[in-house]
Amino acid sequence: MMIEINQISKSFAGKQAVKNLELSIPDGKIFGFLGPNGAGKSTTIKMMTGILPIDEGSISMNGVDISKEPMKAKHLFGYVPDRSDIFLRLKGIEYLNFIADVFEVPKEIRKEKIEYLTKSFGIYEALDDHIQTYSHGMKQKIVVSGVLLHDPDVWILDEPLTGLDPKSAYTLKEMMREHASRGKIVFFSTHVLEVVEQLCDEVAIINNGHVQFKGNMIEMRQQFKEDDNLERLFLELTQNE
Amino acid sequence: MSKAWKLMKIMVKMQLSMSSKSAMEKAGYFFIALMMIPFGLLILFFIQGIIGNLYATLEPLGNESVILGLLFMMMAFIFSFISIGTVLSSFYFAEDVESFIPLPFQPYQILFGKSAVPFLSLYGLNTVLLLPSLIFYGLHSGAGILYYVFAIIIWAVTPIIPFVLTSIILMFIMRFANISKNKDRTKVLVGLLGFVFVIGINVLVRIDTGGENEDLARLITEQNGLLEFVTKFFPPAYFSSITLTELGTFTGLLYFILIITLSALAIFLFLTIGQKLYFKGVLGLSGGKRNNFKEENVQKQVKQQPVLFSLWKKEIRIILRTPTFFTQIVVQSLFFPIFLIVLIIIDPNSPLTGWGSDLNQMEGKKVILAMFGMTVVALGINPASFSSISRDGKSWFNHLYLPIPPSKVILSKLLVSFFLNFLSLMLITIAALFILEMPLTIWLLWFVLSLVTSWIASIAGLMIDLYSPKLTWTDEREVFKGRFIGIVPLALEATIFGVIILVLWNSGLEGIWSVTAVLLTILVLVSVCAQYFLNRLVDRNYYKLL
Ligand SMILES: Nc1ncnc2c1ncn2[C@@H]1O[C@H](COP(=O)(O)OP(=O)(O)OP(=O)(O)O)[C@@H](O)[C@H]1O
Ligand SMILES: [Mg+2]
């Protein structure tokens, strides 16, 4: 499997948002992607998912290059965007059914999965309502359900936990652990350092579009003073500039 | 009040601002303004002709005041009609009111700001239609300076009463819409009902004023008799007319004061009653539907379909459920054929009924070419096609990370605009076959040609939208407002097909079948070319719109 990000760069109107970013994400790991606001996390994730064209460099998943074979690559991952700008005029159930059509999930499986996922997130009873009437957290949950519905190997989640209530956050975190334990990849960005400490096997901290630190949690602690907590470490790493 | 002005300026800016428009769009505006000049002159010429003729006939009978009466009645009707659309769209479909409510504004200030754009469009029309008409009337009657002074004041107050009446009625209805379960659908229905209502009143007035011929003689001989008769449904029109015909007399002045007072009263009512009704209606009106949860209902909706069909259904649902899209796309493309049918049905003796059978006497080639030309124009401005991409707005990116090939997404969008065109073609078919009694073969040939034309029109509109889409809107109206690029496909098609029609018309080619065959071949060739350019544009732009 593996995700390989090779020296990618991206600029918007002359301003570089991502510079020569290099990362490789191994199988069976929960990978945390950290960095201050505007560091380039979402931009990187959008390039990984084919939403933004890559200016330079390449990204491949399981050996499939996202720019060269986009359709094949897009079947491999599920993506939860940072903003839930999904089709608001659809009903929850219509949205999930649409996603299932796109990934050609057979009818019986989709029925079962929709019921299981939406019940565990507590939005089952809202499925017949328009997404427009959902709260922020409910929108987030319907998107997450859509991603899990087609059971992709790679999960790419941009701040998936923001807006979720404690119970749903717990459910999602359990699902992430379970997915990684099956040898699959969970790649997610977050600002919540406790979540990183609890959950991640590996982390990368980026600032101003390039990687400042990457490694597993143990290495990270060793590299810096033993007693430093993650918050201090994060602040130290990202304070320059 | 200065707060209200500021608020109004912001609202107007947000809706009309040029700052966010590209150089190309600005050039487009300029171009369209240029094209409007001959058109405007034509209208002026037309108005001047009508007023001149009427004046010459009615003046000897002392009934020239009826010209003004008719004019003011007509304006009141036009203003009410236009106001339905603009008021609904500014007051109710735009959900920006929710962002103004928490700010420290008085309700009437928000209402004032919100009426700015609808009012501006009324004054635009007012300037184009009423102002020159009043001037022409003045010229014909050889009026002095006093007439022009009063005319300007009357001109300025004319839109107020129709606007206030329409918006208060709409606000009153909307109060009840707010209680309904599916608010988006109700909003759309209210809009439709409004149009039907105004058309209905117009028809009633026409039937009522048409019938009693025997009275006419009496009315004509009596001074201002006709005027009273014509304006009996809308007294302000009577007051305005008298003000301008009995200048300098006590009666004239009295009616002038009356109309000014009424207008002031209308504004007062609008700001007082209006603000209460408006806020009762609009708060919590923002759309979406919540159902009582029933498990079977949800289970029933789970079914496997081909991706293309699923995409198409998604597009259609979004169009039907978004009030702005519904009115701009569905109502607009069906409006013309339905209007045509209604007009013909209302008046069964109209010269159009059974007109189709006369077609047999005409040269077949010319019939088919003329019908084809009309179809090109009718299908040329197709809001569904030039909003194909822009409609998605911020949710467009969802198409990018899902494993759907661009060609499939694009095809689904083409099928949507093609389908809507198809609906209007079917309506025209009903009119053509059953009311106009058009021969079946001619209809069939026209229908086949129209289907291909509609496909080309859909491609053209979509290409324009893909070339410069508007994805960053916060309010659906921005997809249509000020996007005059919708005219570009029409201009293109009109030019290309215009030349083809002209050539075929003058060519030695005879016979309906051979002309149709030639046209069809050309159309198929054009659509193949269009498809080729579309594919190239998709390759180039599809992933680069963000
Ligand atoms: N569409 C865009 N146009 C111009 N600049 C952009 C665009 N999208 C992002 N940027 C810029 O790129 C940089 C990186 O943004 P990005 O959204 O990737 O940050 P982020 O790390 O996800 O931040 P956050 O933690 O706030 O989500 C920022 O400086 C931002 O201003
Ligand atoms: Mg982000």
From TrEMBL, chain A:
Residues 3-233 form the ABC transporter domain. It comes from the Bacteria. It holds the Pfam family ABC_tran. Keywords: ATP-binding, Nucleotide-binding, Transport. GO terms for molecular function: ATP binding; ATP hydrolysis activity. PANTHER family: ABC TRANSPORTER ATP-BINDING PROTEIN ALBC-RELATED. This is ABC-2 type transport system ATP-binding protein.
From TrEMBL, chain B:
Coiled coil: none annotated. Pfam families: ABC_tran_2. Keywords: Membrane, Transmembrane, Transmembrane helix. The keyword Repressor does not apply. The chain crosses the membrane at residues 66-94, 115-139, 145-176, 188-207, 253-273, 325-346, 366-389, 410-436, 442-464, 484-505, 511-534. InterPro entries: ABC_tran_2. The keyword Cytoplasm does not apply. This is ABC-2 type transport system permease protein. It comes from Halobacillus dabanensis. The lineage of its organism: Bacteria, Bacillati, Bacillota, Bacilli, Bacillales.
